Amino acid sequence: MTIQNKQNLSLGANYEQVAGKFRPVFQRIAEGALQREKNRELPREPIQWLKQAGFGAVRVPSAFGGDGVSQKQLFQLLIELAKADSNIVQALRGHFAFVEDRLNAHKTEDQSLWFQRFVEGDLVGNAWTEIGKVEIGDVVTRVTENAQGQLEVNGRKYYSTGTIFADWIDLFALDETTNQHVIAAVSTHSSGIKISDDWHGFGQKTTGSGTLVIEHVPVTRDYILPFDQRFKYQTAFYQVVHLATLAGIAQSAVTAFSNEVRKRTRIYSHGNAELVRDDAQILQVIGKASAQAYASESIALRSAEALDRAYLSHFQNDAALDQKANDLAELESSQGQVVISELVLNLTTELFNALGASASTTEKQLDRFWRNARVVSSHNPLIYKQKVIGDWEINKAPLPYVWQIGNSPAAKQQEIAA
């Protein structure tokens, strides 16, 4: 199949040339990561550095002023950034998903205005999850028509990752005027928006994942996007961001523990060498973790290749090819999650065998690698991923492209009965 107007697509760039623009910024980000972790400081300044460097526009086609990188190249960059500070990658997860959606929408509707915004540095935050005891499938956040005949949005969200740093909100809502699920693209600079940094997780503390309150925020029809028109491989895309984050955490952990081993002078009387750095068993611990980190990156990038194929299939006007490409993107991202999560959680635990009890000091924050990996791995339950993969392998059951979380109706019935 041929693709028309390839210059309007993002098919890849010179990776080293693009990465070279951002590596000095990544280095600056890495230098302050430990302090931010210890003090729970939001990375406001580092995200500004990335905005100024144009990082949010790397997937924008070069014809519109972006770098035109492929998804595989994007996720390679995200792995490098996650090695510097995994919180920042998660904070930008919603942005790159919204960009991806606009790239797909460009097939039928001109998206040059959004592309221009991304090139100018605008970032997009994420706000999908309802707060409180909202029944699964229900959406309390609503687009309504006020007394003056204008559209407005009202609602409350949690896990509004990255929104506190962003210019726009990718807001999931129910449009009462059309009775359909939509994405409302809302400016964070509008009045009636309150963003709180009240995420209390033990890991990924500085991602800006808190409560969002939207009260009587005006929105025009042009900024209300039907949810059923979202790009098909969105769930896989969101998951591969997590895979890249985990791969970066793994690399950072190996580097940090290797540095600790290299400079350690205290030894055990029943060890195997006069210096820890020469102890064969300690080297074995580091070596295994390094191999696990390598495998994590390799699997993440292999999953990203499946996303690139899904992106290309969208523009080839072949429904069967498109379905197959999207199925494989969802399958490979799920398989990658199952394996990478276990690899990274294992290595971030086992690395402590290379050091003594002093490695547990809060000053070094070496536990941050496991804590952050544990939180990232908890977003999409591994047991359900394993189940849907198995159901696909045995029964060719359709993979769930979109799923929801919420309060069980059965729980409500229990409360009434009690």
TrEMBL record:
<keyword id="KW-0560">Oxidoreductase</keyword>
<dbReference type="GO" id="GO:0005737">
    <property type="term" value="C:cytoplasm"/>
</dbReference>
<dbReference type="InterPro" id="IPR009100">
    <property type="entry name" value="AcylCoA_DH/oxidase_NM_dom_sf"/>
</dbReference>
<feature type="domain" description="Acyl-CoA dehydrogenase/oxidase N-terminal">
    <location>
        <begin position="27"/>
        <end position="111"/>
    </location>
</feature>
<comment type="similarity">
    <text>Belongs to the HpaH/HsaA monooxygenase family.</text>
</comment>
<protein>
    <submittedName>
        <fullName>Monooxygenase</fullName>
    </submittedName>
</protein>
<dbReference type="InterPro" id="IPR013107">
    <property type="entry name" value="Acyl-CoA_DH_C"/>
</dbReference>
<dbReference type="Pfam" id="PF08028">
    <property type="entry name" value="Acyl-CoA_dh_2"/>
</dbReference>
<dbReference type="GO" id="GO:0050660">
    <property type="term" value="F:flavin adenine dinucleotide binding"/>
</dbReference>
<dbReference type="InterPro" id="IPR036250">
    <property type="entry name" value="AcylCo_DH-like_C"/>
</dbReference>
<dbReference type="GO" id="GO:0016712">
    <property type="term" value="F:oxidoreductase activity, acting on paired donors, with incorporation or reduction of molecular oxygen, reduced flavin or flavoprotein as one donor, and incorporation of one atom of oxygen"/>
</dbReference>
<dbReference type="InterPro" id="IPR037069">
    <property type="entry name" value="AcylCoA_DH/ox_N_sf"/>
</dbReference>
<keyword id="KW-0503">Monooxygenase</keyword>
<dbReference type="InterPro" id="IPR013786">
    <property type="entry name" value="AcylCoA_DH/ox_N"/>
</dbReference>
<dbReference type="GO" id="GO:0003995">
    <property type="term" value="F:acyl-CoA dehydrogenase activity"/>
</dbReference>
<dbReference type="InterPro" id="IPR050741">
    <property type="entry name" value="Acyl-CoA_dehydrogenase"/>
</dbReference>
<feature type="domain" description="Acyl-CoA dehydrogenase C-terminal">
    <location>
        <begin position="243"/>
        <end position="380"/>
    </location>
</feature>
<dbReference type="Pfam" id="PF02771">
    <property type="entry name" value="Acyl-CoA_dh_N"/>
</dbReference>
<dbReference type="InterPro" id="IPR046373">
    <property type="entry name" value="Acyl-CoA_Oxase/DH_mid-dom_sf"/>
</dbReference>
<dbReference type="GO" id="GO:0033539">
    <property type="term" value="P:fatty acid beta-oxidation using acyl-CoA dehydrogenase"/>
</dbReference>
